[in-house]
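hey m, so remember when u said the tokens were messed up on ur end? i reran from scratch. heres the input so u can diff it against urs
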Amino acid sequence: MKDFAGKIAVITGGGTGMGRELARQLVAEGCNVAMCDVSAEAMAETKKLCEAERLPQGLRVTTHIADVSIEDHLKRFRDELIEQQATDRIHLLFNNAGIGGGGSLFTSSRDQWERTFNICWGGVYLGVRTFLPLMMKADEAHIVNTSSVNGFWATVGMGVPHTAYSAAKFAVKGFTEALMTDLRLNAPHIKCSVVMPGHIGTSILSNSRKIQSGTESDELSPNEILATRQRLDGMGIDTTPMSDEDIQKIALDRARSFRDEAPMTAAAAAKIILDGVKAERWRILVGDDAHKLDERVRKTPEQAYTPEFFRSFAEEVGWRLG
């Protein structure tokens, strides 16, 4: 697929971050977009930004409320797309939606763990299941599944458990790699890619907390403050002299810096992804840190989870240790 003009793309998690930037760049190339998210307000802003580019005559940008972990939501999204986009086929599927949380089997609740896993992995699986029949009807199509560097390196550093997200992203990577053979045998006009970003400037930290807690407030609950203390203590930071207000400030600063001080913007990441689709690359690493980490893990896999490995890599790429 060398260009996107006149095509129809589905994007999950289109309200913010890479999903928003994928929508903007696809629309700029003349592609129709149907996006879903759990936030109507966020999608409305994405649509407004897309339309500010002066859409070509007849181009459609539609928004749909859906939790990708719930199959009936995705089926409703599909049916609304068919009606509002006036088509029974799509050409591009970006399974992009994801959240963090549920890092530990011991200190996180089962609900948090499974919420993360069911969105990050289940959303990809159900997305393919739901929209594959529409892709079968297209003359050419491409599935793009967002994994992560945590799809080949299951940690974010020493002292911080990261099991739900990592397990989900490993599943996405393995599924997409296996899907290549399945598609070649049964639907050769459909290609697929697995995307593995490093640190991209998005609001995933704050958005994940709000989705997990079911609140729009930036204020941490007592349980969240306790969990933050445990995470910091696990990293060797003594939180004993810190007040709850100090912990709150640290959490807000971490979310802000993750978004604003990242080595790559969501817009730059979206361009790399779309260029990868055009080049029919099945494996798309996003960010210099992703490339360097991939090389390191492949070179010394037995050392990948040692403190020395993480510290030296964090120093090389400028990752914060907190």
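this time it looks ok to me. The chain has a mean pLDDT of 92. if urs says something different then somethings off w ur setup not the seq
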